[in-house]
Amino acid sequence: MSFNIGLSGLRAATKDLNVTGNNIANAGTAGFKQSRAEFADVYAASVLGSGSNPQGSGVLLGDISQQFNQGNINYTQNALDLAINGNGFFQVSNNGALSYTRAGYFGTDRNGFLVDNFGYNLQGYTLGANGNLQDTIGNLRIQTANQEPRATTQIAQNLNLNSTNTVPTTTPFNPADPTTYNSSTSTNIYDTQGNSHVLTQYFAKDASNDWTMYVLVDGKRPNFDVDGAAYENTPFAYDVDFDAAGNLTSVVPVDTIVGGVPVPNPTAVGTAAGVVAFDPAHWVPVIEQPAGSGTFVRNGATASADGMVLDMRGATQFASSFAVNSVSQDGYTTGQLAGVEIDDTGMIFARYTNGQSKVQGRVILANFANVQGLTPVGKTQWVQSFESGEPVRNPPRSGTLGAIQSGALEDSNVELSDQLVNLIVAQRNYQANAKTIETESAITQTIINLR
Q1: Cα separation of 158 and 139, whole Å?
Q2: Whether residue 47 has pLDDT greater than 60
């Protein structure tokens, strides 16, 4: 019996050495989770029971338990390196075969799909045919094509006109003569081909709480090619009124007087006071051709088919300097992919050279009721088992799931000092059990030598 006891001890110590050695070997493996060997004693049983003083029969390996405690977060220079700070696993697919990992070595393949260093596809919420994020889980992909331009449909301004300004003494309005107006501001707008144009607003005070706003695009009448070359330099005019408290009350299109003749303003009052609506025909994009000639012709593009809205509801008239506090417009030129960013909730954004960003998908995390029941399959990956239960998939930072850190990797959770001590203990255990077998052999030999 002592031979079997000693042999079981040798086997147990060998397995302990193997587990410890595997931990040490993977101390530098990103996303690796250390294991420990768990042993149990063995007692012989009989039909009538083992009695009050049973004799042990050795040791057996009860389990190899994985330790899923958090590893250190190590920051890298690759934005597509991902680390999970908290619970959860990345879900990857190898031609439909799902596995789970904490190793966030991700990049893109030649088709733009996000893959790990073994070529497995990272899973998450993908984009639909309309480019919107959907709830379908699939292979995440970065769209590398240029972003198409968008024509401006809305301009929103928040500005202040100085109530202490006096009425200009020089008339009529001339954009080249600053004495004919009090203030001006410019905003870039875009046509359907992504060409940039400059919309300039000039403000001339008429009386207390009453101003005229003149609008030119690229220094020309916005639709001069429609109204005729005779009105090329004639701006659109608007009557801008404020109440006694300095709040905007109305922005109304009015005729522009040229040589005593009124030139109608074709734009209309919008759906709210302070909003002006441009129909597509109210702005015809032009270009100076040849450059420097002073001759402007249509550039082949158009304004947005939805028209363009100028929203000035945030305008005020207070006794302070003219200032544009905020301005925004929704148009942009074409853009090339400049980079990819992933936030802590898993949202993937593509940045373009035109300053825009676009959602490309969303990384999901999976978690299990019993993570120690997962089956390790190598490559720092696990697959689900009966003991682990079914995966629960959700975006990062939802429920008990952790957050994603972009540009970082999770280090192995192996503590080398602990493992080296365990290695010494396992070695001593092996030596001690070998000594048990050696002693039993000596005793047996003594009995054999009896004469």
Answers
A1: 43
A2: no
